[in-house]
Amino acid sequence: MAGDDHGGSWQAGRSRWFGRRGVRSFRVAGTKANKVRKSQIAIQHAHDVRRRNPSTWVLWVHASSLARFKESYQDIAERLHLPGRNDSQQNVLQLVHRWLTNDDNGPWLMVIDNADDRDILYQPTSLSASEQPLASYVPKTGQGCLLVTSRSERAAEMLVGEDSLFSVLVMEIDQSKDLLRARLGEKLYDDSIAADLINALGYLPLAIVQAASFIKRRTRRAETILTYLKKFQKSKETKIGLLALEAPDLRRDESASRAVLTTWQMTFDQVRRERKSAAELLCFMSFFHPQGIPDFILKAFYKKSMDKDLEDDIDVLMGYALVATAEEQQTLEMHALVQLCTQVWLSTFDDQERWRCIYLRVLSSEYPFGSFQNWAICRRLEPHIQRAIERCPTGNDDIRNWILILNNTAWFQYTTGNSRRAERMNREALEANTKVLGEEHPDTLAIMNNLASVLLAQGKYKEAETINRQTLEARIKVLGEEHLDTLMTMSNLVSVLQNQGKHKEAEMMDRQTLEARIKVLGEEHPDTLTTRNNLASVLLAQGKHKEAEIIDRQTLEARIKVLGEEHPDTLTTRNNLALVLWTQGKHKEAETMDRQTLEARIKVLGEEHPDTLTTRNNLALVLWTQGKHKEAETMDRQTLETKKKVLGKEHPETLRTISNLALALQNQGKHREAETIDRQILEARIKVLGEEHPDTLTTRNNLASVLLAQGKRKEAETMDRQTLEARIKVLGEEHPDTLTTMNNLAHTYWSQNRKAAAIQLLEACIRLLERELGPNHPDTKASKSSRERWELDS
């Protein structure tokens, strides 16, 4: 504590605020002069709470930035083992908030540290208007207490209310304000914004004097604390310019610098003289996000040096108050102002770009490819990635490191469901790699391959096909037909073709890929299993249900053995098998498997991951076919809203859910609403997928059924005939979807009293159903039942 007075005040105030249940804020100001941080008081209190009541949860949240706040909530979710915590698209903030407000979870203390920036807390967390500000996820009820540390009285007050504020009178904030007031005079001093300026200046007396001098000199130009603060925060260049200004001060030694930048640079020079390696560590750390700097990256920077070298250098930097240990283990933090001054110092030696490239090199060596098994590391490094990729360097080796980080980050974004951001990164990486290594270099082709996958995930099928075919042609030429990378592109092209309804071509290519992968990799290699999984999907799309089920069951068994029960690829096969079961009329088994898959995907991927939404969509369809129309409608509406948000309104998967919703409405007798939706979907699918895509034909089929239900027989007949003709052409006469339309047209004939034509067409349909689906399939039974009724009536 900074003196017994202040420590005593804290002890007296603690019982006042935390002696009763409810949310309470505690406003603490730290001081660098006494090596006391406001966070240390909060840490001490947390230890006291745990000592008095070991069953109390103690949770720590860094509030210095949006990314750090989210990272803290993600860490809390991990430690609490909350379902859905591993999905970047999942609203982890809401997940933790829900846990905190649940009284069944017992007592807790949450420390929100460095809640200084009101904009971070109260502006939406993204450009989307539907996103809530961070402050809305701070609990106001529940079994816990809230301790907020903030240098901004207004930010703390906005979080907890005026009555819940308590000030620990360490010298930093009060003396800083007094200093600013004395330098400005009462007329120019504005207490409402003073704390924000002091925080931005890092509580440095020289910086405060310098700012006050600048404001006073420009009074005639209406300069105020607020306008100075806006200038300071406008850009890196304006901030450097202000910090470089000399502040007149008669009390200072004339030989001493009166500029913040120069003062810090003298400190840096002293560090370099004392221990060169410590100065190099300082340079390296200046490129990270100020908080949560992981020590494993610092160790990678030291390469083969002893860990003791790193620890000794950290001790030197801490001795100069340039870095500090963070509350979480194995991380450091560095004030943003110190980072800025360090980089300006580097620029005086024309050394800033070299150190940025060192940062890129080390980060590229430690940031892994964004596959499932690497998600934890990727999330930990995410706050530090933006600074690394904000602009492309100039040297070829440095560009390659930059591209590697960009490509790996893009794959992490893609696998966690953020395909739009992944696309932007992939395109940047592709452009840079093409310039450096050429269009046909294997690395360039790898990025093209990834970009095609990202485009497929966004429903941009034509562009995905074009890029896949270009990549495949180049890989065959450069690497050979049986190279693993070539086979990967072939597999990806299969998925694109399937999503465009080009099932026969997709099946042929998939069988070629499977044969090659078995030969090169073996039966149980994950890539081979991916091809098996894709083949089953292609067979299903062509109505070859039994063969699809056999392959899906074999693939599922192998993936469980090789990858484990909860691997995302295993869950994909579970999802597909449930769909195969549904198409064969095994509705109860399909529902059970869908529910199991949904639970697992929520746990592993999160509520809003596209794969989770696919399973929700499938489950709603299974519920609908079992007559559970209300539950199906509810699930469809929930899934639709999320898909619009995550994928976009015209994404093929979004349109699929809208189509299912129309079916649920139709089966509840809401024919007009169903017709309106079906017409909208038809227009959108023609635009996005084309006139003859299988999904477009499904919508035509459904719309004809809705029209018939409303007595619009002539329009229904016309649409049924057009759909049947197109399905025979695209899918074949014996495809189950074709038989569905044939059955519907027969019912349309019957409604028009064309009984002979209806029975004749239905008889032909039944023969094909029995042959393709079997006599016990629900569709076969339903058609037979209709025939029996008609024969009695005719």
TrEMBL record:
SUPFAM superfamilies, per database record: P-loop containing nucleoside triphosphate hydrolases (SSF52540), TPR-like (SSF48452)
SMART domains: TPR
Domain of life from the UniProt record: Eukaryota
Matching InterPro entries: DUF7779 (IPR056681), NLR-like (IPR053137), P-loop_NTPase (IPR027417), TPR-like_helical_dom_sf (IPR011990), TPR_rpt (IPR019734)
Transmembrane segments: none
Residues covered by region (Disordered): 774-794
Range of residues in the leader sequence: none
Domain DUF7779: 273-344
One Pfam entry name: TPR_12
NCBIfam families xref list: FxSxx_TPR
Protein name: DUF7779 domain-containing protein
Species this chain originates from: [Torrubiella] hemipterigena
